Amino acid sequence: MEEKRSNAERRKGGLKTMPFIFANEVTEKLAVVGFSANMISYLTQQLHMPLTKAANTLTNFSGTASLTPLLGAFISDAYVGRFWTITVASIIYQIGMISLTISAVHPKLRPPKCTQVCEEADTGQLAILYVSLLFTAIGAGGIRPCVVAFGADQFDQTDPKQKTKTWNFFNWYYFCMGVSILIAVTVIVYIQDNYGWGWGLGFPTIAMGLSIITFVIGYPLYRNMNPSGSPFTRLIQVIVVAFKKRKLPNVSDPKLLYENEELDESISATGKLLHSKQMRFLDKAAIVTDKDESSPTPNLWRISTVHRVEELKSVIRMGPIWASGILLITAYAQQGTFSLQQARTMDRHLTASFQIPPGSMTVFTILAMLGTVMLYDRVFIRVARHFTGLDRGITFLHRMGIGFVISIFATVVAGFIELKRKHVASAHGFIDSPYATIPLSVFWLVPQYALHGIAEAFMSIGHLEFFYDQAPESMRSTASALFWTSISVGNYISTLLVSMVHKYSAGPGGSNWLPDNLNKGKLELFYWLITILQVINLVYYVLCAKFYTFKPIELRQKERELDASVELAIVV
């Protein structure tokens, strides 16, 4: 009976589940990118917001949508599992999209068209916008951290043939995500600009509804992992126990610290973390006292195992590297705000009758990112192997460092291109015409968009690799949430930076670096300010990477035997 149940379980999962899972991810990206890529246009042209307020609304929304994955990951790991988290979150997301679509269609839910004076959206209209965005942010928080882990769950890690497909899954995930983003910044944005926001938001809303139905239909095929408790609870337990035992002296031999493989097996199926010498004050949580020995069962609020202590150490060690990725997101965020406004003032015609929508300029970032990923996988890794001897070509720390350097070039280039744009605007008498199209091709902006895409291919994917590799095994499902949290903080830093620059660069007559009329502003100085911050951040990152300690891990017996059999087969 047990064997039949095991065989039935093995028949679940695998490649046949991918269309159902990817359908959910593709439509979520189609909806969120299709709106956010052109959101600055919606806020300024439909709701008549000032440019800086619209830019801050956009980055605040992006920041919130990237912060909620922590909540989604916690609920999934601790209570309901990934399938139900994705399902409920998708329904919440759908409600937000329906609300946004209705507000874009119903004339009373947005201000009237501009006549001589543009009337800004009132409090009630803005409330509907913010509530709708909040629903989509909450929905994204359940989808984003769980889809990647749920997809990886469909491949049996104990089966050598399926185990290798897990890494292929990440490539498929990025490919599908990239395709959906390309569709969003081209087709959806074109519909929004030429056929109205009702159609432009309606199509992604319908697609999201269909994806929910498709995802639920696939339920009998999925491999569902039961929630094994929140890793955050275990981290808090270690902190509490270490604090309680703070007055105890450290043991002379780490072997005297408490270990319990049976207790840790559910959170460390493939390997246990070994004792490390850093942060020895946390080791006190694993010191065995007379009270602990007299207890028949271990109380995890009184004593922690070495593995659980090392989980906390691993998370703390990842912190500085996690923080280094924030400023790259801050620089990247400007593409959806000020770079888009630059594009709006430039000649976007491809033919006499067709011009590129400003929101579609992101396509050059996506194309550059996907092209870089392909070249990295097919060419760069193979060349780098000859010099480093590493299977992956270079370490994820080196990959992230390259991304930082390229991002610095991106903002430097953006500043010089803005100088060129303003020079042309001034030479042709458009300095007082913020909405006039100057005789300068929008393709001048391609280098800054493309460089950001190349930087993302190195930095963002390297960041994800870092989290997956260095996070404790029990926290791999939460690793993507940590990645999205860095994106969240980066967007919030962008909001803060824009607000501070707008306030402290104010001059006589209401002038400042970032006015609604970019022709009279100093956007190039803002870009170069971000460049300086990124240079400082690069120095910080190099120091963090130099002194970073990789997590010490020992494979469990089952895995060691499997590795040994593979090595023997290769030798034979």
Any overview of this molecule?
With about 575 residues, this protein is mainly alpha-helical. The protein has three domains: about 10-225, Growth Hormone, Chain: A (Up-down Bundle), CATH 1.20.1250; about 230-315, no CATH class; about 325-570, Growth Hormone, Chain: A, CATH 1.20.1250.20. About 70% of the residues lie in helices and about 0% in strands. The chain is built from 21 helices and four strands. The protein has helices spanning about 1-10, 20-35, 40-45, 50-65, 70-80, 80-105, 125-155, 160-195, 195-215, 230-245, 260-265, 290-295, 305-325, 325-335, 340-345, 360-390, 395-425, 445-470, 475-505, 525-545, 555-570; strands at about 270-275, 345, 440, 555. The strands form two sheets. A two-stranded antiparallel sheet has the order 1-4. A two-stranded parallel sheet has the order 2-3. Helix 4 (about 50-65) runs parallel beside helix 7. The longest helix is centred in the N-terminal third of the chain and has 36 residues, at about 160-195. The model is unreliable at about 1-10 and about 555-570 (pLDDT under 50). GO terms for molecular function: transmembrane transporter activity. Belongs to the major facilitator superfamily. Proton-dependent oligopeptide transporter (POT/PTR) (TC 2.A.17) family.
Mean pLDDT: 81
CATH hierarchy class name of the largest domain: Mainly Alpha
Instruction: Tell me the span between the first and last alpha carbons.
Output: 37 Å
Most strands sheet:
2 strands, antiparallel
Number of domains: 3
Number of helices: 21
Q: Provide the spatial order of strands within the biggest beta sheet.
A: 1-4
Percent of residues in β-strands: under 5%
Helix/strand/pairing class, anyone?
A: mainly alpha
- From the alpha-carbon coordinates, what is the Rg to the nearest angstrom? 26 Å
Low-confidence residue ranges: 1-9, 557-572
CATH architecture of the largest domain: Up-down Bundle
Report the strand count. Answer: 4
Subcellular location: Membrane
Family: Belongs to the major facilitator superfamily. Proton-dependent oligopeptide transporter (POT/PTR) (TC 2.A.17) family.
Pfam families: PTR2
Membrane topology: Multi-pass membrane protein
